[in-house]
Amino acid sequence: MRPLHIPLRTLRLKKREFNCKVRKGFFYLIFFCLFVKFPVFSSDFKYVGLSFVDVKIGKVSSMIKVFRLRFILAVVAASCSVFTGCGWEQSAPVAQQVEEIRQPIAFLYDHAAGMEIARRERKPTLVFFSVPDNLGSQRMLETTFHDEEIKRLAEWLVCIHVDGLQESALCESLGITNFPTIILSNTNGAEVRRLVGRQTPDQLAVQIHVLLQVMALRPQAVGR
């Protein structure tokens, strides 16, 4: 049997084609990582990536040169971020600060324990009754209780969150039939106000101010 003879030129072309594909895959991977790390380099990502498809083996287009230049600049920027500590490490505190700003008021989730704490500390209470699938309840948790004025006023209260599905017996004993419902009580646990339906931050702030005035607690008003 005669040995298979492959021309040397064909072998060289195959090798060049293979190396080109490897380089192309490598650049795609690196550029994708830099695309996530440095959005400033992503403006030409789609165009640069598509241009590789039309590049013939052995030829280097101007767009590849631009890509390589951006790649070198990105590597330099990444190196600077590693050595100067200005990379991902410093983004965590900022994200943490944003998350802290977005935190709602501090709720207690045990009604009996919350009422006992209120009596012991002689504080009025805000009891929020909600159910998970209720739109008004969700909107209040996402907006009303994130409001800065409401969070400031909540420091004068003991705030309790009651799940109407899990605490159905408690809701029945208190006559809670609609959600969301808020009950504002004095330091003895006696009901002062009952707010049925979704409350905006302004509406709830007014009612809390009235409760605190009745209790002779007068926090400094904040302009809204």
Architecture overview:
α1 packs across α3 (62-84). This protein has a four-stranded mixed beta sheet with strand order 2-1-3-4, with helices on both faces. Helices cover 53% and strands 10% of the residues. The model is unreliable at 39-61, 82-92 and 94-101 (pLDDT under 50). The protein has helices at 8-37, 45-51, 62-84, 91-101, 111-121, 135-142, 148-154, 168-174, 201-214; strands at 125-130, 158-163, 181-185, 191-196. It is elongated and about 95 Å long. It has nine helices and four strands. By secondary structure, the protein is an alpha+beta fold.
Can you give me a brief rundown of this structure?
The chain is 53% helix and 10% strand.
